[in-house]
Amino acid sequence: ERQRFQGKTAIVTGAGSGIGKAAAMKLASEGASVALFDLLDDRTQQAEQEINAKFPGAARSYDVDVADPKRVEDAVREAAEHFGRIDIVFANAGINGKLAPVEELSYEDWNKTLSINLSGTFLTVKHTVPYLKHQGGGSIIITSSVNGNDRFSGFGMSAYSTTKAGQEAFGKMIALELAKFKIRVNVICPGAISTNIDASTKVSKDLEEIVIPVKYPEGSQPLADGPGKPENVADLVAFLASDESIHITGARIVIDGAESLL
Ligand code: NAD
Description:
44% of the residues lie in helices and 17% in strands. The N and C termini lie far apart (38 Å). The protein has a single domain, classed as 3-Layer(aba) Sandwich (Rossmann fold), CATH 3.40.50. Helix 4 runs parallel beside helix 6. A seven-stranded parallel beta sheet has the order 3-2-1-4-6-7-9, sandwiched between helices. Strands 5-8 form a two-stranded parallel sheet. The protein is of the alpha/beta class. The structure holds nicotinamide-adenine-dinucleotide (NAD). The site of nicotinamide-adenine-dinucleotide has 28 residues, from helix 1 and helix 4.
C-alpha cells in the first residue's frame, strides 16, 4: 500500500472521538505518527490503543484542553520533541455547546463555545506554525461546519455558528499569511456526521421542542440518505494533508452529501 505520510507527524485535536479519531487512524494507516490531543479520558486512551494495535507506535495521546494557552504550547513542544517534527496540523476539537435563544444564552456559555472552538483553533495554529516554518512547509486543516456559512437551520446555535464562520475567516487570513512559507491552510465544512458531538450539547428547555426535530432528520443528506461517516471526512483530511493538494490553500470544502442544498 502507498504510504503518503511515511516519516511525517500529525497533531490532531479532538482525536479521542468522531472525526478527529477517524482522521488520526487514516493518517496513521498511511504511515504518519499521530499526536492525539484531547481532554484525556478513557476514550482518548482507547483511541491511542486502537491506532497502536493496528499501526504499532504510531499514536501517542496528550491531555490537552485546547482552550488552555499554556497547555497547548507545552503539549505541542512535547509532541515535537517526542516525534522530532510536525508536518500536519488538524485543528478539529469542538463542541456544540449550549443551544439556547440568544437572550437566554449566558455570557459564560457563549464564552465557553468561543474559547474551545475559536480560541482553541487559534492556539493550536499559533503554537504549531513555528515548527512548520522551521521545516519549510506543512498542511493545516481546520474543521468548521456547514453551520458556518451554508446552512442556518439549527435553532439556538448563534454561538456555534459564530465560531464556525470565525474559523473560516481565520483560515483564509493565515492561508495568505503563511503561503510564502509553503504552509497550506484549508477549512473543511462537514454536514451532519455520526459522532459523539451530541454529548457536548446542552439544550435549553425552551429549545428542546424545536431543536431536536430539526437536528439531523432521517435522510437529511440526499447523497447518503442519513448522516455522513467520520471516515468520509477522514479521507478529505488525508487529501488536504497530502501533496496531492499541493496547490490548494485558503479553500473551504463542504462535505455534506448535499445537505446544505436542501
Ligand atoms: P465528537 O464529540 O465526537 O469529538 C470531538 C472531540 O473533541 C471529543 O473527543 C472531545 O473530547 C474533544 N474536545 C472537546 N472539547 C475539547 C477541548 N476543550 N480540548 C480538547 N479536546 C476537546 O465530535 P465531532 O463531530 O467529531 O467533532 C469534531 C469537529 O467537527 C468539531 O469542531 C465539530 O464542530 C465539527 N463538526 C461536526 C459535525 C457533526 O455533525 N458531527 C458537523 C460539522 C462540524
